[in-house]
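Encode chain A's predicted structure.
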Amino acid sequence: MRALVLATVLAATVAVPGAGAADIKVLTAGAFKQVVLALVPDFEKTTGHKVTLDNDTVGALVKRIEGGEAFDVAILSPAAIDSLTKAGKIAPGAPALARVGVGVVIKAGAPPPDITTVDAFKQALLAAKSVAYIDPAAGGSSGIYVAGLLDRLGIADAVKAKARLIKGGAVAEHVAAGEAEIGIHQISEILPVKGAILVGPLPKEIQNYTVYAAGVGAAARDGDAAKALVAFLSGPAAAPVLQAKGMEPAK
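Encoded structure for chain A:
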């Protein structure tokens, strides 16, 4: 059934029959990387196109694109897509792909803290010897949110004193390596890391969802191939992969 859905989606979106295979350069923000990695092999096999993936924070990718870096597809937050569309870097009509919430991670084997309420979450952070999250200065969506959340909860100074600020990549990798007792990051960045355990999502009162959208570069080398990839990433074949990677449909 999955193969049939894939074939149907691609039949409607792939470039003109007989056209040559294209090289598609994708710039993707961190949390969506695992989804793209899981879906690209089917896309490449069916279309013959080759996808090259480059991963960074939303802020860093925006700066790179504004600086003139060539790309075919960019997967960023809607706000970043909108800004780059207005700047003429991304073609209009970028669809939303999915959203992901923020979760708490610990090293496998460690006792899980109680994070079921906002107060319990606060106490867990205050009790931890070290707390890891993305450095807000790096431009990562979760890091910017966590920094603001700590301020709102009134524990910013206490947590910053023992914070392990991660410049990029997966916070869970540093927790699994024993560099921090507890970590806060987007759920899709936690699930694939061996040696790390997702304790759970943040309490709903303080949960934050990051939405990801995919835009075709205004100067894409092969616009049809880039559009076909975006259509595939936003189509029905992507749904089970999104769920498995800790994401859900954009709302």
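The mean pLDDT is 91.
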